[in-house]
Write a structure and sequence with these properties.
Elements lengths: L3 H6 L12 H10 L3 H8 L3 H11 L2 E3 L6 H11 L1 H6 L2 E6 L7 H13 L5 E6 L5 H5 L6 H4 L7 E4 L8 H6 L5 E4 L18 E3 L14 E5 L16 E6 L8 H11 L5 E6 L11 E5 H4 L7 E6 L4 E5 L4 E4 L3 H14 L5 E6 L5 E6 L8 E2 L7 H4 L11 H5 L4
Parallel strand pairs: 1-2, 2-3, 3-4, 4-5, 5-6, 6-7, 7-8, 8-9, 9-11, 10-12, 11-14
Antiparallel strand pairs: 12-13, 14-15, 15-16
Protein name: F-box domain-containing protein
Length: 400
């Protein structure tokens, strides 16, 4: 009789299966949608770890995680290969009084390691701070020493004049967002030759003699500065903090249609409620005005206080914006009047969170409603989208 211990002793040892090729690991990692799943894959093998880290470090948003940005900075400073994975980065920095030199050195060193960085957003912590009033004029070297060539850059932090060395390197920059005037956009300097999109809070900061294709700015009573971009502008987002009694949405649509009839993408966005809670205006435009848009493909409309919208014509159509059904009725009429429209997204907040998203596969085709909660303006705004993405709802939105 053979003892059990003897049987165990003569069992063949288990052997590891053949390693999974890196190409297969990459495909598997690309199919994992969440960060937690990628972190699990990091522990499976060195091959999986390399591919998972490629995705984990590709797009980094540290805007709401003040502690994590220091952990990230230490990791990419120590491991250059991790820094090389970084393609998109969002940083929120304290004001120049609170930002210690040692901390700036660590973050600056980490930024300089991200040689493949293409999209960068530098935000300021808090409101009403020293930064908000005058921008940081001490630590411009954090950007000036970097060698990366960006395509997208948002600056809410640094004084524009102290990052001139940074601007001189940005020959591939396409999209610029800045609260203030950008000195490097001066045509006499010959810098930033590729810029096609500009975001600013004040229309007076828009650069002159530039063939801009995309603009995002705040509504003001004078939209004449936009006229200079008539030949090239395809995308326009106009925002305002709350309803403007002197320049209502209907008037905005009229001026834009008459000034820029060749727009392809238009967004009109109310960002906040009116201080007067009893003020609920009626929005109005006409079929004749809407029909001036002969190339419009996407229309984004967010209303905070408007409780009724009228489409004027031979017989006016009044839309009481009190439910998702009535909001969709407004969207359908707009798309019917503008046969080139392929997507309309309307968000009405006065009586709740009424949402309407309508699409159609081709101009003049069947209009289809897309169900689901409101995913945020960023999903529908075409300002930051790659030029080849027409309908962002199909790419970025997964209704639950």
């Amino acid at each position: 009789m053979v003892k059990k211990s003897t049987v165990r002793a003569h069992r063949p040892k288990a052997t590891l299966s053949a390693p999974i090729p890196p190409e297969i690991c990459a495909i598997i990692c690309d199919m994992v949608a969440d960060r937690r799943g990628l972190l699990i894959l990091c522990r499976m093998s060195s091959t999986f770890r390399a591919q998972a880290q490629r995705l984990l470090y590709h797009s980094i948003d540290l805007s709401d995680q003040p502690i994590r940005k220091y952990v990230w900075a230490a990791a990419v400073s120590k491991h250059a290969y991790l820094a090389e994975f970084v393609h998109s980065l969002v940083l929120r920095l304290p004001d120049m009084v609170s930002l210690e030199a040692s901390t700036a050195n660590k973050l600056g060193r980490a930024l300089s390691k991200c040689v493949n960085l293409k999209e960068l957003r530098i935000l300021a912590e808090g409101t009403g701070s020293v930064v908000a009033a005058g921008h940081n004029s001490f630590y411009g070297w954090m950007l000036n020493k970097c060698s990366f060539r960006l395509t997208h850059f948002e600056n809410q932090y640094f004084d524009d004049t102290i990052i001139r060395d940074f601007w001189r390197k940005q020959s591939e920059l396409l999209v610029v967002s800045s609260e203030h005037n950008v000195c490097a956009m001066d045509p006499d300097l010959g810098l930033l030759p590729q810029v096609i999109a500009f975001n600013t809070n004040h229309m007076g900061n828009l650069p002159v003699e530039r063939p801009l294709q995309r603009i995002e700015t705040r509504v003001c009573n004078n939209l004449n500065p936009l006229k200079q971009y008539e030949a090239t502008l395809t995308t326009l987002n106009l925002t305002q903090i709350w309803i403007n009694r002197d320049f209502p949405i209907g008037a905005v649509i009229k001026v834009v249609a008459e000034t820029l009839p060749n727009l392809v993408h238009l967004g009109i966005i109310e960002e906040d409620r009116c201080r007067d809670n009893t003020y609920h205006p009626t929005g109005a435009t006409s079929k004749a005005i809407l029909q001036k848009f002969t190339k419009l493909q996407t229309f984004l409309l967010q209303l905070q206080d408007t409780w009724r919208f009228v489409i004027q014509g031979a017989s006016d159509t009044q839309h009481a914006l009190t439910s998702p059904t009535t909001v969709c009725d407004l969207g359908r009429e707009i798309m019917t009047v503008c046969p080139t429209l392929r997507q309309t997204a309307i968000h009405v907040k006065i009586f709740g969170m009424d949402v309407c998203v309508l699409t159609r596969p081709q101009p003049g085709g069947t209009i289809r409603e897309v169900p689901g909660p409101w995913p945020g303006i960023g999903v529908f705004s075409m300002f930051w989208k790659p030029a080849n993405i027409l309908l962002p709802v199909h790419q970025d939105w997964n209704p639950r």
